[in-house]
Protein backbone atom coordinates (compact mmCIF):
# COMPACT_ATOMS: atom_id res chain seq x y z
CA UNK A 1 0.00 0.00 0.00
CA UNK A 2 1.33 3.40 -0.86
CA UNK A 3 1.09 6.30 1.50
CA UNK A 4 -0.79 9.16 -0.03
CA UNK A 5 0.21 12.42 1.58
CA UNK A 6 -2.83 14.50 2.32
CA UNK A 7 -2.83 18.08 3.31
CA UNK A 8 -5.33 17.41 6.07
CA UNK A 9 -3.13 15.02 8.07
CA UNK A 10 -0.13 17.27 7.66
CA UNK A 11 -1.94 20.30 8.87
CA UNK A 12 -3.62 18.77 11.89
CA UNK A 13 -0.64 16.98 13.39
CA UNK A 14 2.26 19.40 13.69
CA UNK A 15 5.63 17.98 14.68
CA UNK A 16 6.03 20.81 17.13
CA UNK A 17 5.76 20.19 20.89
CA UNK A 18 2.35 18.90 21.78
CA UNK A 19 -0.24 21.40 22.68
CA UNK A 20 -0.85 21.60 26.41
CA UNK A 21 -4.32 20.06 26.21
CA UNK A 22 -3.11 17.14 24.09
CA UNK A 23 -0.28 16.40 26.48
CA UNK A 24 -2.71 16.53 29.37
CA UNK A 25 -4.94 14.06 27.56
CA UNK A 26 -2.04 11.64 27.02
CA UNK A 27 -0.96 11.79 30.64
CA UNK A 28 -4.51 11.26 31.77
CA UNK A 29 -4.91 8.31 29.41
CA UNK A 30 -1.78 6.65 30.79
CA UNK A 31 -2.96 7.28 34.34
CA UNK A 32 -6.41 5.87 33.56
CA UNK A 33 -4.75 2.84 32.03
CA UNK A 34 -2.69 2.26 35.12
CA UNK A 35 -5.73 2.68 37.30
CA UNK A 36 -7.65 0.16 35.17
CA UNK A 37 -4.80 -2.35 35.50
CA UNK A 38 -4.75 -1.95 39.25
CA UNK A 39 -8.49 -2.43 39.43
CA UNK A 40 -8.37 -5.49 37.21
CA UNK A 41 -5.56 -7.10 39.18
CA UNK A 42 -7.05 -6.29 42.59
CA UNK A 43 -8.86 -9.65 43.05
CA UNK A 44 -5.63 -11.42 42.22
CA UNK A 45 -3.67 -9.26 44.65
CA UNK A 46 -6.30 -9.91 47.30
CA UNK A 47 -6.23 -13.70 46.91
CA UNK A 48 -2.45 -13.98 46.74
CA UNK A 49 -2.07 -11.49 49.59
CA UNK A 50 -4.35 -13.37 51.95
CA UNK A 51 -3.57 -16.95 50.97
CA UNK A 52 0.08 -16.73 49.94
CA UNK A 53 1.91 -13.69 51.34
CA UNK A 54 0.27 -13.67 54.76
CA UNK A 55 0.78 -17.43 55.28
CA UNK A 56 4.47 -17.11 54.36
CA UNK A 57 4.85 -14.20 56.80
CA UNK A 58 3.00 -16.20 59.42
CA UNK A 59 5.39 -19.14 58.96
CA UNK A 60 8.40 -16.85 59.30
CA UNK A 61 6.95 -15.34 62.49
CA UNK A 62 5.98 -18.67 64.02
CA UNK A 63 9.41 -20.11 63.27
CA UNK A 64 10.69 -17.93 66.15
CA UNK A 65 7.93 -19.02 68.54
CA UNK A 66 8.17 -21.60 71.27
CA UNK A 67 6.15 -24.75 71.79
CA UNK A 68 5.05 -26.98 74.62
CA UNK A 69 3.72 -30.46 74.06
CA UNK A 70 0.21 -29.20 73.43
CA UNK A 71 0.40 -25.57 72.41
CA UNK A 72 2.55 -22.89 70.86
CA UNK A 73 3.29 -19.48 72.33
CA UNK A 74 4.63 -16.22 70.87
CA UNK A 75 8.30 -15.61 71.51
CA UNK A 76 11.40 -14.46 69.74
CA UNK A 77 13.92 -17.21 70.13
CA UNK A 78 16.26 -19.01 67.78
CA UNK A 79 15.82 -22.40 69.44
CA UNK A 80 14.00 -23.91 66.47
CA UNK A 81 16.78 -22.96 64.08
CA UNK A 82 19.47 -23.98 66.52
CA UNK A 83 17.88 -27.36 66.92
CA UNK A 84 17.40 -27.70 63.17
CA UNK A 85 20.98 -26.86 62.25
CA UNK A 86 22.38 -28.73 65.24
CA UNK A 87 20.91 -32.05 64.21
CA UNK A 88 22.72 -34.41 61.83
CA UNK A 89 19.36 -35.70 60.62
CA UNK A 90 18.60 -32.34 59.06
CA UNK A 91 21.63 -32.46 56.80
CA UNK A 92 20.94 -36.05 55.79
CA UNK A 93 17.34 -35.26 54.97
CA UNK A 94 18.20 -32.13 52.99
CA UNK A 95 20.85 -34.09 51.12
CA UNK A 96 18.34 -36.82 50.35
CA UNK A 97 15.86 -34.23 49.11
CA UNK A 98 18.44 -32.91 46.66
CA UNK A 99 19.32 -36.43 45.55
CA UNK A 100 15.65 -37.19 44.84
CA UNK A 101 15.37 -33.94 42.92
CA UNK A 102 18.54 -34.59 40.90
CA UNK A 103 17.70 -38.18 39.94
CA UNK A 104 14.11 -37.28 39.07
CA UNK A 105 15.34 -34.30 37.05
CA UNK A 106 17.69 -36.47 34.96
CA UNK A 107 15.02 -39.05 34.16
CA UNK A 108 12.16 -36.62 33.50
CA UNK A 109 14.41 -34.50 31.29
CA UNK A 110 15.67 -37.46 29.25
CA UNK A 111 12.20 -38.95 28.80
CA UNK A 112 10.39 -35.63 28.43
CA UNK A 113 12.84 -34.30 25.85
CA UNK A 114 12.68 -37.48 23.79
CA UNK A 115 8.89 -37.54 23.81
CA UNK A 116 8.63 -33.84 22.92
CA UNK A 117 11.25 -34.25 20.18
CA UNK A 118 9.32 -37.14 18.67
CA UNK A 119 6.05 -35.20 18.75
CA UNK A 120 7.46 -31.96 17.38
CA UNK A 121 9.82 -33.24 14.69
CA UNK A 122 8.76 -36.75 13.73
CA UNK A 123 4.98 -36.64 13.83
CA UNK A 124 4.03 -34.94 10.60
CA UNK A 125 0.39 -33.88 10.81
CA UNK A 126 -0.78 -31.23 13.23
CA UNK A 127 -3.89 -33.24 14.11
CA UNK A 128 -1.78 -36.19 15.20
CA UNK A 129 0.58 -33.92 17.09
CA UNK A 130 -2.30 -32.44 19.06
CA UNK A 131 -3.93 -35.82 19.65
CA UNK A 132 -0.74 -37.47 20.92
CA UNK A 133 0.15 -34.39 22.97
CA UNK A 134 -3.26 -34.55 24.65
CA UNK A 135 -2.68 -38.24 25.34
CA UNK A 136 0.46 -37.22 27.25
CA UNK A 137 -1.24 -34.45 29.23
CA UNK A 138 -4.54 -36.08 30.23
CA UNK A 139 -3.05 -37.83 33.30
CA UNK A 140 -2.11 -34.39 34.61
CA UNK A 141 -5.81 -33.72 35.12
CA UNK A 142 -6.39 -36.90 37.13
CA UNK A 143 -5.63 -37.65 40.75
CA UNK A 144 -1.98 -38.02 41.82
CA UNK A 145 -2.96 -40.10 44.83
CA UNK A 146 -4.70 -42.67 42.66
CA UNK A 147 -1.83 -42.72 40.20
CA UNK A 148 0.45 -43.57 43.13
CA UNK A 149 -1.89 -46.26 44.45
CA UNK A 150 -2.02 -47.82 41.01
CA UNK A 151 1.64 -48.84 41.29
CA UNK A 152 0.82 -51.23 44.14
CA UNK A 153 -0.32 -54.18 41.99
CA UNK A 154 2.77 -53.71 39.84
CA UNK A 155 5.46 -53.44 42.46
CA UNK A 156 4.12 -55.43 45.40
CA UNK A 157 5.79 -58.59 46.69
CA UNK A 158 3.40 -60.72 44.64
CA UNK A 159 2.93 -58.02 42.05
CA UNK A 160 3.14 -58.14 38.28
CA UNK A 161 6.82 -57.20 38.11
CA UNK A 162 7.92 -59.87 40.55
CA UNK A 163 5.78 -62.63 39.04
CA UNK A 164 7.03 -61.77 35.55
CA UNK A 165 10.66 -61.80 36.64
CA UNK A 166 10.14 -65.07 38.53
CA UNK A 167 8.49 -66.68 35.55
CA UNK A 168 11.28 -65.60 33.25
CA UNK A 169 13.70 -67.16 35.70
CA UNK A 170 15.64 -63.95 36.18
CA UNK A 171 15.23 -64.07 39.95
CA UNK A 172 14.72 -66.90 42.46
CA UNK A 173 12.68 -65.02 45.02
CA UNK A 174 10.57 -61.86 44.89
CA UNK A 175 12.50 -58.60 44.99
CA UNK A 176 11.71 -56.76 48.21
CA UNK A 177 12.90 -53.34 47.11
CA UNK A 178 10.34 -52.72 44.37
CA UNK A 179 7.57 -51.26 46.50
CA UNK A 180 8.13 -49.14 49.62
CA UNK A 181 11.64 -48.08 48.73
CA UNK A 182 13.57 -45.16 47.28
CA UNK A 183 13.27 -46.89 43.92
CA UNK A 184 9.48 -46.71 44.14
CA UNK A 185 9.67 -43.04 45.18
CA UNK A 186 11.74 -42.05 42.15
CA UNK A 187 9.58 -44.18 39.87
CA UNK A 188 6.46 -42.40 41.11
CA UNK A 189 8.10 -38.98 40.75
CA UNK A 190 9.06 -39.74 37.16
CA UNK A 191 5.61 -41.12 36.49
CA UNK A 192 3.85 -38.08 37.97
CA UNK A 193 6.08 -35.25 36.76
CA UNK A 194 7.48 -36.17 33.32
CA UNK A 195 4.63 -34.33 31.65
CA UNK A 196 5.79 -31.11 33.31
CA UNK A 197 8.85 -31.51 31.08
CA UNK A 198 7.00 -32.66 27.97
CA UNK A 199 4.62 -29.70 27.84
CA UNK A 200 7.06 -26.73 27.94
CA UNK A 201 9.71 -28.46 25.82
CA UNK A 202 7.13 -29.41 23.19
CA UNK A 203 5.84 -25.85 23.30
CA UNK A 204 9.25 -24.31 22.52
CA UNK A 205 10.08 -26.98 19.94
CA UNK A 206 6.88 -26.24 18.03
CA UNK A 207 8.04 -22.66 17.68
CA UNK A 208 11.39 -23.59 16.15
CA UNK A 209 11.37 -22.52 12.51
CA UNK A 210 11.56 -25.74 10.49
CA UNK A 211 13.63 -23.95 7.86
CA UNK A 212 16.47 -23.73 10.38
CA UNK A 213 16.56 -27.51 10.53
CA UNK A 214 16.42 -27.62 6.72
CA UNK A 215 19.27 -25.14 6.50
CA UNK A 216 21.39 -27.21 8.88
CA UNK A 217 20.70 -30.32 6.83
CA UNK A 218 21.56 -28.52 3.58
CA UNK A 219 24.79 -27.37 5.18
CA UNK A 220 25.64 -31.03 5.72
CA UNK A 221 24.85 -31.48 9.42
CA UNK A 222 24.05 -34.99 10.61
CA UNK A 223 20.92 -35.74 12.59
CA UNK A 224 22.88 -35.68 15.82
CA UNK A 225 24.56 -32.40 14.94
CA UNK A 226 21.18 -30.82 14.16
CA UNK A 227 19.96 -32.01 17.54
CA UNK A 228 22.89 -30.67 19.54
CA UNK A 229 23.59 -27.50 17.56
CA UNK A 230 20.14 -26.34 16.55
CA UNK A 231 17.31 -27.96 18.45
CA UNK A 232 18.71 -28.22 21.98
CA UNK A 233 19.92 -24.58 22.12
CA UNK A 234 16.57 -23.35 20.81
CA UNK A 235 14.59 -25.60 23.17
CA UNK A 236 16.56 -24.44 26.21
CA UNK A 237 13.83 -22.10 27.56
CA UNK A 238 11.36 -24.99 27.57
CA UNK A 239 13.91 -27.21 29.27
CA UNK A 240 14.47 -24.59 31.97
CA UNK A 241 10.74 -24.09 32.62
CA UNK A 242 10.22 -27.84 32.84
CA UNK A 243 13.19 -28.11 35.19
CA UNK A 244 11.79 -25.41 37.47
CA UNK A 245 8.52 -27.36 37.70
CA UNK A 246 10.11 -30.72 38.37
CA UNK A 247 12.74 -29.55 40.85
CA UNK A 248 10.32 -27.47 42.92
CA UNK A 249 7.62 -30.16 42.88
CA UNK A 250 10.04 -32.84 44.05
CA UNK A 251 11.70 -30.63 46.67
CA UNK A 252 8.35 -29.62 48.14
CA UNK A 253 6.81 -33.07 48.03
CA UNK A 254 5.93 -34.98 51.17
CA UNK A 255 3.15 -37.29 50.16
CA UNK A 256 4.83 -39.27 47.39
CA UNK A 257 7.83 -40.01 49.60
CA UNK A 258 5.59 -41.05 52.44
CA UNK A 259 3.33 -43.30 50.39
CA UNK A 260 5.83 -44.87 48.00
CA UNK A 261 8.52 -45.49 50.62
CA UNK A 262 6.01 -46.89 53.10
CA UNK A 263 7.19 -44.21 55.56
CA UNK A 264 10.72 -45.64 55.42
CA UNK A 265 12.35 -42.75 53.62
CA UNK A 266 12.36 -39.07 54.49
CA UNK A 267 12.72 -35.77 52.72
CA UNK A 268 12.31 -32.23 54.01
CA UNK A 269 8.58 -32.20 53.32
CA UNK A 270 8.10 -35.23 55.52
CA UNK A 271 10.21 -33.64 58.25
CA UNK A 272 7.76 -30.73 58.21
CA UNK A 273 4.65 -32.91 58.08
CA UNK A 274 5.94 -35.07 60.96
CA UNK A 275 6.41 -31.96 63.10
CA UNK A 276 2.91 -30.84 62.16
CA UNK A 277 1.50 -34.20 63.20
CA UNK A 278 3.20 -33.77 66.60
CA UNK A 279 1.78 -30.23 66.84
CA UNK A 280 5.33 -28.82 66.86
CA UNK A 281 4.36 -25.94 64.59
CA UNK A 282 7.31 -23.61 65.38
CA UNK A 283 9.78 -26.34 64.55
CA UNK A 284 7.84 -27.18 61.37
CA UNK A 285 7.81 -23.49 60.47
CA UNK A 286 11.59 -23.17 60.89
CA UNK A 287 12.18 -26.15 58.61
CA UNK A 288 9.68 -24.69 56.15
CA UNK A 289 11.53 -21.36 56.09
CA UNK A 290 14.80 -23.12 55.26
CA UNK A 291 13.08 -25.23 52.59
CA UNK A 292 11.48 -22.14 51.06
CA UNK A 293 14.86 -20.38 50.97
CA UNK A 294 16.40 -23.39 49.21
CA UNK A 295 13.61 -23.59 46.65
CA UNK A 296 13.69 -19.85 45.95
CA UNK A 297 17.46 -19.95 45.47
CA UNK A 298 17.08 -22.83 43.01
CA UNK A 299 14.38 -20.94 41.10
CA UNK A 300 16.44 -17.73 41.07
CA UNK A 301 19.39 -19.64 39.59
CA UNK A 302 17.23 -21.28 36.93
CA UNK A 303 15.43 -18.04 36.07
CA UNK A 304 18.78 -16.55 35.09
CA UNK A 305 18.72 -18.83 32.05
CA UNK A 306 15.21 -18.03 30.88
CA UNK A 307 12.86 -15.07 30.63
CA UNK A 308 9.51 -16.68 31.41
CA UNK A 309 7.46 -13.68 30.31
CA UNK A 310 8.99 -13.88 26.85
CA UNK A 311 8.27 -17.58 26.55
CA UNK A 312 4.52 -17.46 27.15
CA UNK B 1 7.19 -36.95 1.32
CA UNK B 2 10.44 -38.63 2.14
CA UNK B 3 10.21 -42.10 3.71
CA UNK B 4 10.25 -42.47 7.46
CA UNK B 5 13.74 -42.73 8.87
CA UNK B 6 14.85 -45.45 11.24
CA UNK B 7 14.93 -42.97 14.09
CA UNK B 8 11.20 -42.35 13.58
CA UNK B 9 10.44 -45.96 14.42
CA UNK B 10 12.83 -45.99 17.36
CA UNK B 11 11.35 -42.81 18.79
CA UNK B 12 7.85 -44.04 18.02
CA UNK B 13 8.51 -47.19 20.02
CA UNK B 14 9.89 -45.07 22.86
CA UNK B 15 6.76 -42.92 22.77
CA UNK B 16 4.53 -46.01 22.86
CA UNK B 17 6.44 -47.29 25.91
CA UNK B 18 6.02 -43.91 27.57
CA UNK B 19 2.27 -43.99 27.01
CA UNK B 20 2.20 -47.53 28.42
CA UNK B 21 4.18 -46.31 31.45
CA UNK B 22 1.73 -43.42 31.83
CA UNK B 23 -1.51 -45.39 31.53
CA UNK B 24 -0.50 -48.98 32.39
CA UNK B 25 -0.91 -48.73 36.16
CA UNK B 26 -4.27 -46.96 35.84
CA UNK B 27 -5.55 -49.66 33.49
CA UNK B 28 -4.26 -52.35 35.84
CA UNK B 29 -6.25 -51.09 38.81
CA UNK B 30 -9.20 -50.71 36.45
CA UNK B 31 -9.01 -54.43 35.72
CA UNK B 32 -8.33 -55.40 39.33
CA UNK B 33 -11.33 -53.41 40.55
CA UNK B 34 -13.49 -56.19 39.08
CA UNK B 35 -11.88 -58.79 41.35
CA UNK B 36 -14.13 -61.53 42.67
CA UNK B 37 -15.20 -61.29 46.33
CA UNK B 38 -12.24 -63.40 47.46
CA UNK B 39 -9.64 -61.53 45.42
CA UNK B 40 -6.78 -59.45 46.73
CA UNK B 41 -4.83 -56.36 45.79
CA UNK B 42 -2.93 -58.00 42.97
CA UNK B 43 -3.27 -60.66 40.28
CA UNK B 44 -4.44 -63.38 39.88
CA UNK B 45 -8.07 -62.46 39.42
CA UNK B 46 -10.27 -64.68 41.57
CA UNK B 47 -13.35 -64.43 39.45
CA UNK B 48 -14.97 -61.36 38.02
CA UNK B 49 -17.54 -59.38 39.95
CA UNK B 50 -18.93 -55.98 40.76
CA UNK B 51 -18.52 -56.81 44.44
CA UNK B 52 -16.15 -53.91 45.23
CA UNK B 53 -18.28 -51.38 43.44
CA UNK B 54 -21.27 -52.62 45.40
CA UNK B 55 -19.33 -52.11 48.61
CA UNK B 56 -18.47 -48.60 47.48
CA UNK B 57 -22.14 -47.73 47.30
CA UNK B 58 -22.86 -49.03 50.79
CA UNK B 59 -21.89 -45.91 52.60
CA UNK B 60 -20.87 -47.44 55.96
CA UNK B 61 -18.32 -49.77 54.43
CA UNK B 62 -15.73 -47.17 53.49
CA UNK B 63 -16.55 -43.96 55.27
CA UNK B 64 -18.18 -40.88 53.88
CA UNK B 65 -16.94 -40.99 50.30
CA UNK B 66 -20.16 -39.66 48.79
CA UNK B 67 -20.13 -36.66 51.07
CA UNK B 68 -16.48 -36.14 50.18
CA UNK B 69 -17.26 -36.44 46.47
CA UNK B 70 -20.04 -33.89 46.78
CA UNK B 71 -17.78 -31.45 48.64
CA UNK B 72 -15.02 -31.88 46.07
CA UNK B 73 -17.51 -31.25 43.28
CA UNK B 74 -18.85 -28.05 44.83
CA UNK B 75 -15.38 -26.83 45.74
CA UNK B 76 -14.16 -27.63 42.22
CA UNK B 77 -16.94 -25.53 40.70
CA UNK B 78 -16.25 -22.65 43.10
CA UNK B 79 -12.54 -22.73 42.30
CA UNK B 80 -13.26 -23.06 38.58
CA UNK B 81 -15.48 -19.97 38.38
CA UNK B 82 -13.15 -17.90 40.55
CA UNK B 83 -10.10 -18.99 38.57
CA UNK B 84 -11.70 -18.05 35.25
CA UNK B 85 -12.88 -14.62 36.45
CA UNK B 86 -9.70 -13.66 38.31
CA UNK B 87 -7.45 -14.96 35.52
CA UNK B 88 -9.26 -13.04 32.80
CA UNK B 89 -9.12 -9.86 34.87
CA UNK B 90 -5.46 -10.46 35.66
CA UNK B 91 -4.71 -11.22 32.02
CA UNK B 92 -6.35 -7.94 30.96
CA UNK B 93 -4.44 -6.03 33.66
CA UNK B 94 -1.10 -7.40 32.51
CA UNK B 95 -1.61 -6.28 28.91
CA UNK B 96 0.08 -3.03 29.85
CA UNK B 97 2.93 -2.53 32.24
CA UNK B 98 1.82 -0.95 35.48
CA UNK B 99 3.61 -0.08 38.68
CA UNK B 100 3.89 -3.28 40.66
CA UNK B 101 3.37 -5.58 37.68
CA UNK B 102 6.82 -7.15 37.92
CA UNK B 103 6.62 -8.05 41.65
CA UNK B 104 3.10 -9.33 41.06
CA UNK B 105 4.34 -11.52 38.22
CA UNK B 106 7.00 -13.04 40.44
CA UNK B 107 4.40 -13.54 43.15
CA UNK B 108 2.40 -15.61 40.67
CA UNK B 109 5.49 -17.71 39.91
CA UNK B 110 6.08 -18.11 43.65
CA UNK B 111 2.50 -19.24 44.13
CA UNK B 112 3.08 -21.94 41.52
CA UNK B 113 6.43 -23.20 42.75
CA UNK B 114 6.19 -22.83 46.53
CA UNK B 115 6.14 -26.21 48.29
CA UNK B 116 2.47 -26.98 48.84
CA UNK B 117 2.95 -27.89 52.47
CA UNK B 118 3.97 -24.29 53.21
CA UNK B 119 0.66 -22.97 51.93
CA UNK B 120 -1.16 -25.60 53.95
CA UNK B 121 0.82 -24.90 57.11
CA UNK B 122 0.71 -21.11 56.79
CA UNK B 123 -3.02 -20.86 56.20
CA UNK B 124 -3.67 -23.41 58.92
CA UNK B 125 -1.60 -21.34 61.39
CA UNK B 126 -3.32 -18.07 60.48
CA UNK B 127 -6.77 -19.60 60.95
CA UNK B 128 -5.92 -21.34 64.22
CA UNK B 129 -4.16 -18.31 65.72
CA UNK B 130 -7.02 -15.97 64.86
CA UNK B 131 -9.53 -18.39 66.32
CA UNK B 132 -11.21 -19.25 63.04
CA UNK B 133 -12.12 -22.78 62.08
CA UNK B 134 -10.57 -24.11 58.91
CA UNK B 135 -13.22 -25.22 56.45
CA UNK B 136 -12.97 -26.56 52.92
CA UNK B 137 -15.08 -23.73 51.53
CA UNK B 138 -13.04 -20.92 53.11
CA UNK B 139 -9.42 -21.82 53.91
CA UNK B 140 -9.46 -24.83 51.60
CA UNK B 141 -10.90 -22.71 48.80
CA UNK B 142 -8.19 -20.06 49.20
CA UNK B 143 -5.41 -22.62 49.44
CA UNK B 144 -6.51 -24.24 46.19
CA UNK B 145 -6.68 -20.88 44.43
CA UNK B 146 -2.95 -20.41 45.06
CA UNK B 147 -2.45 -23.53 42.94
CA UNK B 148 -5.06 -22.99 40.16
CA UNK B 149 -4.66 -19.23 39.61
CA UNK B 150 -1.04 -19.38 38.36
CA UNK B 151 -2.06 -21.90 35.69
CA UNK B 152 -5.05 -19.80 34.65
CA UNK B 153 -2.97 -16.63 34.55
CA UNK B 154 -0.12 -18.18 32.58
CA UNK B 155 -2.66 -19.39 30.02
CA UNK B 156 -4.19 -15.91 29.83
CA UNK B 157 -0.76 -14.28 29.45
CA UNK B 158 0.00 -16.64 26.57
CA UNK B 159 -3.38 -15.89 25.00
CA UNK B 160 -2.97 -12.12 25.20
CA UNK B 161 0.61 -12.31 23.90
CA UNK B 162 -0.84 -13.73 20.70
CA UNK B 163 -3.83 -11.39 20.63
CA UNK B 164 -4.14 -9.26 17.51
CA UNK B 165 -4.73 -5.72 18.74
CA UNK B 166 -6.04 -4.54 15.37
CA UNK B 167 -9.43 -6.09 16.15
CA UNK B 168 -9.79 -3.79 19.11
CA UNK B 169 -8.57 -0.81 17.14
CA UNK B 170 -11.16 -1.56 14.49
CA UNK B 171 -13.87 -1.67 17.14
CA UNK B 172 -12.66 1.61 18.59
CA UNK B 173 -12.56 3.22 15.17
CA UNK B 174 -16.17 2.20 14.69
CA UNK B 175 -17.02 4.06 17.85
CA UNK B 176 -17.26 1.23 20.41
CA UNK B 177 -16.74 2.14 24.04
CA UNK B 178 -14.03 0.23 25.97
CA UNK B 179 -16.72 -1.87 27.63
CA UNK B 180 -18.38 -2.68 24.28
CA UNK B 181 -14.99 -3.59 22.82
CA UNK B 182 -14.37 -5.97 25.69
CA UNK B 183 -17.83 -7.50 25.54
CA UNK B 184 -18.25 -7.89 21.79
CA UNK B 185 -14.67 -8.26 20.56
CA UNK B 186 -12.15 -9.34 23.18
CA UNK B 187 -14.20 -11.86 25.18
CA UNK B 188 -15.59 -13.72 22.14
CA UNK B 189 -12.07 -14.04 20.73
CA UNK B 190 -10.52 -15.37 23.93
CA UNK B 191 -13.63 -17.47 24.74
CA UNK B 192 -12.26 -20.88 23.68
CA UNK B 193 -9.15 -20.47 25.84
CA UNK B 194 -11.39 -19.79 28.82
CA UNK B 195 -12.59 -23.38 28.44
CA UNK B 196 -8.97 -24.41 28.99
CA UNK B 197 -8.68 -22.22 32.07
CA UNK B 198 -11.91 -23.69 33.43
CA UNK B 199 -10.62 -27.22 32.83
CA UNK B 200 -7.45 -26.46 34.79
CA UNK B 201 -9.44 -24.74 37.53
CA UNK B 202 -11.84 -27.61 38.05
CA UNK B 203 -9.57 -30.62 37.68
CA UNK B 204 -6.65 -29.19 39.66
CA UNK B 205 -9.02 -28.37 42.49
CA UNK B 206 -10.85 -31.70 42.28
CA UNK B 207 -7.56 -33.62 42.62
CA UNK B 208 -5.71 -31.24 44.94
CA UNK B 209 -4.24 -32.84 48.01
CA UNK B 210 -1.23 -31.18 49.61
CA UNK B 211 -2.56 -27.63 49.88
CA UNK B 212 -5.95 -28.84 51.12
CA UNK B 213 -4.52 -31.19 53.73
CA UNK B 214 -4.34 -28.76 56.67
CA UNK B 215 -6.96 -26.36 55.38
CA UNK B 216 -10.02 -28.55 54.79
CA UNK B 217 -11.08 -28.88 58.41
CA UNK B 218 -13.19 -31.72 59.72
CA UNK B 219 -14.93 -32.51 56.44
CA UNK B 220 -12.62 -34.17 53.92
CA UNK B 221 -12.50 -33.57 50.21
CA UNK B 222 -12.33 -36.70 48.05
CA UNK B 223 -8.53 -36.88 47.61
CA UNK B 224 -8.08 -36.52 51.39
CA UNK B 225 -10.67 -39.25 51.95
CA UNK B 226 -8.92 -41.53 49.46
CA UNK B 227 -5.56 -40.94 51.07
CA UNK B 228 -7.05 -41.75 54.46
CA UNK B 229 -8.34 -45.00 52.98
CA UNK B 230 -4.87 -46.06 51.82
CA UNK B 231 -3.82 -46.56 55.43
CA UNK B 232 -6.73 -48.68 56.59
CA UNK B 233 -8.47 -50.15 53.55
CA UNK B 234 -6.61 -53.07 52.03
CA UNK B 235 -9.18 -54.46 49.65
CA UNK B 236 -9.84 -53.80 45.96
CA UNK B 237 -12.55 -51.35 47.04
CA UNK B 238 -9.72 -48.82 46.84
CA UNK B 239 -9.25 -49.72 43.17
CA UNK B 240 -12.96 -49.43 42.53
CA UNK B 241 -12.95 -45.95 44.01
CA UNK B 242 -9.78 -45.03 42.10
CA UNK B 243 -11.25 -46.27 38.85
CA UNK B 244 -14.49 -44.36 39.36
CA UNK B 245 -12.65 -41.16 40.20
CA UNK B 246 -10.37 -41.50 37.18
CA UNK B 247 -13.37 -42.23 34.95
CA UNK B 248 -15.08 -39.14 36.33
CA UNK B 249 -11.97 -37.09 35.51
CA UNK B 250 -11.90 -38.52 31.99
CA UNK B 251 -15.56 -37.62 31.51
CA UNK B 252 -14.90 -34.06 32.72
CA UNK B 253 -11.88 -33.71 30.41
CA UNK B 254 -13.89 -35.17 27.54
CA UNK B 255 -16.75 -32.72 28.11
CA UNK B 256 -14.36 -29.75 28.18
CA UNK B 257 -12.57 -30.90 25.02
CA UNK B 258 -15.92 -31.42 23.33
CA UNK B 259 -17.09 -27.92 24.24
CA UNK B 260 -13.80 -26.52 22.93
CA UNK B 261 -14.22 -28.42 19.65
CA UNK B 262 -17.82 -27.37 19.19
CA UNK B 263 -17.07 -23.72 19.85
CA UNK B 264 -14.19 -23.91 17.41
CA UNK B 265 -16.17 -25.49 14.60
CA UNK B 266 -19.06 -23.13 15.25
CA UNK B 267 -16.70 -20.25 14.86
CA UNK B 268 -15.31 -21.77 11.69
CA UNK B 269 -18.81 -22.22 10.31
CA UNK B 270 -20.44 -18.94 11.28
CA UNK B 271 -17.42 -16.90 12.14
CA UNK B 272 -16.14 -13.74 10.64
CA UNK B 273 -16.00 -13.24 6.90
CA UNK B 274 -13.86 -10.20 7.38
CA UNK B 275 -11.66 -9.44 4.44
CA UNK B 276 -13.30 -11.97 2.15
CA UNK B 277 -15.42 -9.42 0.33
CA UNK B 278 -12.44 -7.29 -0.56
CA UNK B 279 -10.38 -9.83 -2.46
From TrEMBL, chain A:
Entry GO terms, CC: plasma membrane
InterPro entries per UniProt: MetI-like, MetI-like_sf
Pfam name, any one: BPD_transp_1
A single BP term in Gene Ontology: transmembrane transport
Keyword terms, alphabetized: Cell membrane, Membrane, Transmembrane, Transmembrane helix, Transport
Membrane topology: Multi-pass membrane protein
Domain ABC transmembrane type-1: 94-302
Protein location: Cell membrane
Gene3D superfamilies referenced in this protein's UniProt entry, alphabetically: MetI-like (1.10.3720.10)
TM ranges: 38-65, 93-119, 126-146, 177-202, 281-306
UniProt family annotation: Belongs to the binding-protein-dependent transport system permease family. CysTW subfamily.
Protein name as annotated: Putative spermidine/putrescine transport system permease protein
Organism: Hoeflea marina
Automatic annotation (TrEMBL), chain B:
One BP annotation, GO: transmembrane transport
Locations listed in the record: Cell membrane
Topology of this chain in the membrane: Multi-pass membrane protein
A Pfam family: BPD_transp_1
Stretches assigned to the ABC transmembrane type-1 domain: 69-260
CDD domains: TM_PBP2
Gene Ontology cellular-component terms listed: plasma membrane
Gene3D superfamilies from the UniProt entry: MetI-like (1.10.3720.10)
TM region positions: 7-34, 68-92, 104-127, 147-164, 185-206, 237-260
Keyword Secreted: no
Similarity field: Belongs to the binding-protein-dependent transport system permease family. CysTW subfamily.
Identification of the protein by name: Putative spermidine/putrescine transport system permease protein
Lineage start: Bacteria, Pseudomonadati, Pseudomonadota, Alphaproteobacteria, Hyphomicrobiales
Amino acid sequence: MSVIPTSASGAKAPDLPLAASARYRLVRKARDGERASWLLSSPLVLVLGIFLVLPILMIVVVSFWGATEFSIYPAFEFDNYQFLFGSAVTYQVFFKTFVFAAITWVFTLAIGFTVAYFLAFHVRSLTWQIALFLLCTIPFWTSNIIRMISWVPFLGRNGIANSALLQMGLIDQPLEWLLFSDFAVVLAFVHLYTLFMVVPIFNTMMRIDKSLVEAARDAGASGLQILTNVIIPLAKPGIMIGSIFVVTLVMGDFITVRFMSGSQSANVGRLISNDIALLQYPSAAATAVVLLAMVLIMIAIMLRFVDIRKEL
Amino acid sequence: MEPRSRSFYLLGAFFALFILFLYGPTITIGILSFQGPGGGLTFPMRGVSLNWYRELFQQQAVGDIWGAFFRSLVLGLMVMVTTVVVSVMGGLAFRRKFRGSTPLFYLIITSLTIPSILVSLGIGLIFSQSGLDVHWATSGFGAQLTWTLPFGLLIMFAVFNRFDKSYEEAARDLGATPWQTLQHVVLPIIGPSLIGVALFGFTLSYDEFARTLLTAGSYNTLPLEIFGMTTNVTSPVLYALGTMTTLFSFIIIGVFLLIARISQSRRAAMGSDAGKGLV
